[in-house]
Amino acid sequence: MNALAKAAEWFINLFNLGGQNFMGLVTGIIPTLVVLITFVNALIALIGQEKMDKFAAGCSKFFLLRYTVLPVLSMFILCNPMAYTFGRFLEEKYKPAFYDSAVSFCHPITGLFPHANAGELFVYLGIAQGITALGYSLGALAILYFIVGVVVILIRGIVTERLTLLFMKRR
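Predicted structure:
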C-alpha cells in the first residue's frame, strides 16, 4: 500500500512541476513574445504592406539578398511557419532554395528574436542554460548564433539553388 501511495505522490508531483514550469513561462517569456509580435505587426503597419512586398520582390533578384536578407526578414516579420510565404516573390526555380534557407534559419534567429519561432525557444534556452552556467554571455551567444545562421543559410541557399537548376535541366 505504501508503494502505491508513493507512486501516486510521484505522479501528481510530476504535474505540479509541469505547472510550475508553465507559470515560469507565463511570467517570463510569454509577455516578451506578445510584445515582440505586437511590435512587428505595428512596424509592418507603419511601413505599409505594399512597400514590404515591393522590397521583398527586389531582394529576390540577387542571390546574396535572396538567401540572406529575404529569409531573415521573413522569419522576423512573419515568423515560423508563415515565413515561407515570402517565397511567392521568387521564380519557381528559386523557391526550393529559399525554403531551405528560411527553414534553416528557424533556430539561429531565436536568441535575438524569440517571437520568430517559439517552438525552437526551448532548444535555445537549454543551450543558454549551459552557457550561463559556464559564465558566458547570452548576448554573445545570440549574436554568434545569428551570424553563423546567416552564413549557413547563404551556403545552403546557393547549394540548393545549384542542385535545383541541375535537376531541372535533367528533366
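Summary: The chain is about 75% helix and 0% strand.
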